[in-house]
Amino acid sequence: MKKPNAPSPHSAAEHAAAQPNGPVETRKSFAPSQFQALDLLATLVAVVDPQGRVLFANAALEDALGMSRRSIAGSMLQTCFTEPAQLESALQGASGNQFAALRYDAWLKRLNHDTLPVHVVVAQTDNPGEVIVELLPLEQQARQEREERLIDQAQANKELIRNLAHEIKNPLGGIRGAAQLLQMDLESRELIEYTQVIIHEADRLQSLVDRLLAPHRRPHVVGDVNIHEVCERVRSLILAEFPKGLKVVRDYDTSIPEFRGDREQLIQAVLNIAHNAAQALGQRIAAGDARIVFRTRIGRQVTFGKQRYRLALELHVIDNGPGVPDSIKDRIFFPLVSGRDGGSGLGLTLAQTFVQQHHGLIECESVPNQTDFKILIPLP
Q1: I want to staple 23 with a disulfide (CB 3.0 to 4.6 A). Which of 37, 129, 138, 141 is the partner?
Q2: pTM of the entire structure?
Q3: Where would I find the H helices in 242-346?
Q4: Tens digits of per-residue pLDDT, 129-161?
Q5: Do 159 and 197 sit in the same domain of this protein?
Q6: If you ran DSSP here, which 8-state letter would residue 3 be given?
Q7: Domain assignment of residue 3, yes or no
Q8: CA separation for the pair 220, 355 (Å, rounded)
Q9: Domain ends where: 110, 138, 166?
C-alpha cells in the first residue's frame, strides 16, 4: 500500500473544493439536497466531517458499497476501508490545514463483494466542517485512460486514412491510364499480359482506397434502429457463409428501446466484428464446437468517451477462438493491422469509425478461448 503524498490537484474532488462558487462552498446546511451536483460524477464521492462521519454519499458510492445513502449517512467512512488509519490520518491533516489535497491508494470494503482497489483523494473545502473524499476505482481509471487512447487513435487514424487515400488515388489513375494506352500499341501477347497485370493491380488498389474513403463519403442516414434486427441480419449473413461447425447464440435483452442511428452502418460494424471472429474460429469450426454469442444489455450511468450517460446500449460479440495475438492487442483498431494472413486490416478500423459516428465506442477484451468486443452506444 502506498503512503500518502500530496501532488498537484487534478481530481473532481479537488476541482470542486477549489471553486469558490462550487456546490460544496455555497451550502448553508448539511442537507443532502445541497450536494446533489455530486451525483453527476462517475467517481465515488463522500462529504464527511473532520472525524470521518458521512454527511453525504453520491449515487456512484452507493452502488459501489451496495448500501443506500440513508444507511451510509452518519456512519464513519474509515470503517469502509481495510486500513482505516490511513483515512483518519488524512482527515487530521485536512483539519489541521496541512495540505490542500492528499492522494493515496487503498482497498474499499463492499457488502457481499470483493474489496475494491481505489485511489483516494482527500480535499479541503472553504467550510471547516466538511471534507470531500473522492474514490477512483483503479480498474475504472485504467479503463477511462484506455478509452481516451482509443478515441485519440481513431481520430488520428481518420486523418491518416483520408490523407493517404487521396495521395494514392491521384497517381493511381495515371498509372492505370498509361498502362491502357501502352496496351493499345502493343502486339506481343506476352507484353500485353504485363500491362494487364498493371491494370489489375491498379484496380485492386483503387478498391482498397475506396474502402478507406467509404466512411467519409457515405452520408449518415439516420432512422429508428432496432439493435436486434441488426444482430439478426448479421447472424444470417455469418451462418450463410459458415453453415457448418459454427453456432451463433442469441442472448438478447428485448427491453432495449429503438434509437436514432444509421442501420446500414451498424450492420456493417457488427458484421466486420463477427466476420473477424468467424475467421479466427477456423480450427474450432473444423472441430464443430465454434461459437459466437450476440449479447445485448442496457448499461446504466455509463461513462465512456469522456461523458457520462444515463443509459447506453452494450452489444457484446463474444467468440471462443484463440484470442487476439498479444503483439497486436493494442493496435487492433489501427488501419492495415491484421492478425490473419491475407487480411486487409480495415474491418475493425471501419467498425470503430461507424460506431463513433453514433457517439459510441468499441472496446475489446481478449484471452485464449474468449474474445469480447463490446459496442457502447448512448440511448435516449
Answers
A1: 37
A2: 0.54
A3: 263-280, 282-287
A4: 888 899 888 766 566 666 666 666 666 666 666
A5: yes
A6: P
A7: no
A8: 12
A9: 138
